[in-house]
Amino acid sequence: xxxxxxxxxxxxxxxxxxxxxxxxxxxxxxxxxxxxxxxxxxxxxxxxxxxxxxxxxxxxxxxxxxxxxxxxxxxxxxxxxxxxxxxxxxxxxxxxxxxxxxxxxxxxxxxxxxxxxxxxxxxxxxxxxxxxxxxxxxxxxxxxxxxxxxxxxxxxxxxxxxxxxxxxxxxxxxxxxxxxxxxxxxxxxxxxxxxxxxxxxxxxxxxxxxxxxxxxxxxxxxxxxxxxxxxxxxxxxxxxxxxxxxxxxxxxxxxxxxxxxxxxxxxxxxxxxxxxxxxxxxxxxxxxxxxxxxxxxxxxxxxxxxxxxxxxxxxxxxxxxxxxxxxxxxxxxxxxxxxxxxxxxxxxxxxxxxxxxxxxxxxxxxxxxxxxxxxxxxxxxxxxxxxxxxxxxxxxxxxxxxxxxxxxxxxxxxxxxxxxxxxxxxxxxxxxxxxxxxxxxxxxxxxxxxxxxxxxxxxxxxxxxxxxxxxxxxxxx
Length: 477
Known about the structure:
Layout: H1 13-17, E1 26-30, H2 35-50, E2 54-60, E3 74-78, H3 92-121, E4 126-132, H4 136-144, E5 149-153, H5 157-171, H6 206-222, E6 226-228, H7 232-245, E7 250-252, H8 256-259, H9 273-279, E8 286-290, H10 299-312, E9 316-319, H11 344-347, E10 352-355, H12 360-365, E11 369-374, H13 378-386, E12 391-393, H14 400-409, E13 414-416, H15 423-434, H16 438-457, H17 462-476
Helix pairs in contact: 3-4, 4-6, 5-6, 5-7, 10-15, 15-16
C-alpha cells in the first residue's frame, strides 16, 4: 500500500503539513459503515486534506466505500468476517445488533492493520485517529497502541445530549415506554423532546439501546475530543450544554458539505438525469421526496404516498430506491416504476420524475426545489437547512424523531407528517408546504438559517474557527 501524494498546502494548512519536522502528518479515520456515517467522515477527510494532512481511511468490507472515487486518500480494508454471513440490517433493532457485532468482529483485525500502518508511517508522524462514535472497540484499540483519538458523532448536539441523559431519563421512568399514552409526554429535562422523540425500540430492545448509547458516550469520554457536524447558529444552547457536561473539547465544524462538497461517498448510483429535468421547472415549484438510504415503509404506505403526491398537483422529484418497501426485496437494477401503483405514472406524466437515487446536495441547491419531504436524517436535515429548503418530516427511527421535532418546534422550518399515511392528508401536507401562506413563512425561516450557515462556514465564521482549533488540537496530541 502506498500513501497518497502530498497535498497542496494553502493558508493555515502549512502548520499541519510541517507539523512534524517539516514532514507530512497523518490522520487516520474509521467511519461506521452506513451511508449516513460514511458521508460526513469522508467530508471530514476532505477538510483535513485541505489543511495539509495525509488521510488514511480504515473501512469494513461491509458497505466499503469506493476508493477509486477518492484517489487523494489511502484506504485500508479491515476484515469484518461478516460480509455475506447474514442479510443486511433492515429494522432499527437489526442495525443496533449489527453495530455491536461489527465492533467485536473488527477489533482484532483493526489492531493488526493499525499496528502495520503505525510501523510504516512511524508512530510520531500520526496525529490521531478519528473514529465514529459507535466504534468504541476501535477507540479502545487505538488507545492501547498509544494513538490519540477523537470521535465524530454524525448526529446533532441535541441528540448527543440525549445520549448523556439516557440513564437519568430511565431512572425517572420515561423509558422504557410502558404504554402508548407515554409517547406524547414532554421530557422536561430535554425540551422540546417528547418521549416519542427519544431513541428507543420498545421494551424488548431497551437494554440493547441502553448499551448502544452508553458505548457511544464512553467512546467520547475516552477520546481527546468530540467532532460534530453542526453549527453554532443552529444549536448554540445545545453546544453550550455539551461543553459544560463533557471534559473533552467539542468542535462544531458543520455543515460539513459546505467545506467539502465534492466528497462522494454514495453507496448507490446517482441518477443525474433529474438535474436536467429540474432545469426546465419554475423556481421553488418542485417538491423533492427522499427517505434516505436506510429508512423503509410498508407497501400500503407507498401506495398512499404515491397517490397523495399525484393528487397534490405539485411537480415532484421522488427517490424510490431498491429496498424502500419492506417485505419486498427489489433487485438493485429493478426499474423503480415497478414499485409504484398501477396508473401512477400515467397520472403524473410530465409533472414528476422518479429515480432510484439522486445527487441530493445538487438537488437541494437547485433553484427549482421549493420543499423537501424527508425521513429527517441528520445529513438530510442540515443539507436542507443550509440550502434554505423547508421540510415535510416523516421520521422513522433513531435520531430522526428528535430532528423532526427541532425542525418544527425550534427552527420552524417545516413540520412533521405523523400518524398513518393517508393520501388525503399527504395531499394537504404537500400543498401546505408549497403554498405561499404557511409554506412562505417556513421558507423564510429556512432562508434565515441558510444565511446563518453561510456565515458560520465563511471566513472567521464559528465553524471555520472550530476547524482551526480542531487542527491545532490534533497537532498538539
